[in-house]
Specification:
The chain is globular. Helix 4 packs across helix 5. About 12% of the residues have low confidence. 71% of the residues lie in helices and 0% in strands. With 288 residues, the protein is mainly alpha-helical.
Length: 288
């Protein structure tokens, strides 16, 4: 009987020692860093998430590689973004914030928006060729100007300017170890460029020959008002793009050009300058 008791006591001591020496589960530093980096989001860490983010070159390579894979592009979502850039642009930038939480980048990783924008550039160039009575080669030259100069060329300059200014002067003191992605700055330009394109390169065409091209006060007022709305929308959408970034402050400074824009609008109407007609003449003669 005593032998059985001794055996049972030895078994209990063995089990107690086993569970006392078992390590207590703890969260790894990497998981803590991930949670802090993602802003305490309740969403689970995605499988493809990496604490050390991809370099800009790697992101650019991944983006350009998907340009030829149409089956992987979400055109429905890109069309949704284009629609909401007119009626509720805040929702578009809310999605950029979600992408930062799930994919650790603000910039688009799906080129579907750029592909649809290219379609609108081609369609509007056809409309311009009909209104301005350009020939086939005039249409080709006009299309190349619109894509590589008006959209991409000017966009590269504007995106680089805002990227530099935001990283140099708008970063919060507590976020000096972070920066605004250049790809995101270019996405902001594309977002702001799309409403401008539809207003000036599509909507305006229906009224140019019947109203805007005449030497009437109402023609000048209507044409200049379209430019005021288009450029004002560009400034506002750009402001929304940078104001949604939690690492920036004083983004209201980006709205200051609206005052100068309004002043220029009043002056051009008062002195009799039809801005739409001038730009149309410039478009026509630069391809001849």
């Amino acid at each position: 009987m005593s032998c059985a008791c001794l055996c049972w006591q030895a078994f209990l001591e063995t089990m107690q020692t086993k569970y006392q020496t078992s390590p207590v589960p703890s969260r790894s530093p990497s998981s803590l860093s991930n949670n802090n980096l993602r802003g305490g989001s309740p969403l689970p860490v995605p499988v493809a998430y990496r604490l050390d983010c991809m370099t800009a070159a790697a992101k650019r390579y991944k983006y350009l590689r998907r340009l030829v894979k149409f089956q992987q592009m979400d055109f429905e979502f890109a069309f949704w973004q284009m629609l909401y850039l007119f009626i509720a642009p805040q929702k578009v930038y809310r999605n950029f914030h979600y992408r930062k939480q799930t994919k650790s980048q603000f910039a688009r990783d799906d080129p579907a928006f750029l592909v649809l924008l290219s379609f609108w550039l081609c369609a509007s160039s056809v409309g311009f060729s009909l209104v301005l009575r350009l020939g086939f080669w005039g249409f080709v030259k006009f299309l190349l100007y619109v894509i590589f100069v008006d959209c991409i060329g000017v966009g590269l300059l504007i995106a680089t300017l805002f990227w530099f200014v935001s990283n140099k002067y708008l970063i919060k003191p507590s976020c000096q170890d972070q920066d605004v992605e250049w790809g995101y700055a270019f996405d902001v330009h594309l977002n702001a460029f799309f409403p401008l394109l539809i207003i000036l390169h599509v909507f305006q065409l229906f009224f140019y020959n019947v109203l805007i091209s005449h030497e009437w006060f109402v023609s000048r007022l209507f044409g200049n008002s379209l430019w005021l709305i288009a450029l004002g929308y560009y400034i506002y959408v750009t402001f929304l793009g940078y104001s949604c970034l939690p690492i920036l402050h004083r983004t209201h400074l980006l709205l200051y050009p609206l005052t100068a824009l309004l002043l220029i609008y009043v002056v051009t109407v008062a002195i009799g300058w039809n801005v739409s007609q001038t730009v149309m003449d410039f478009y026509k003669y630069r391809v001849l």
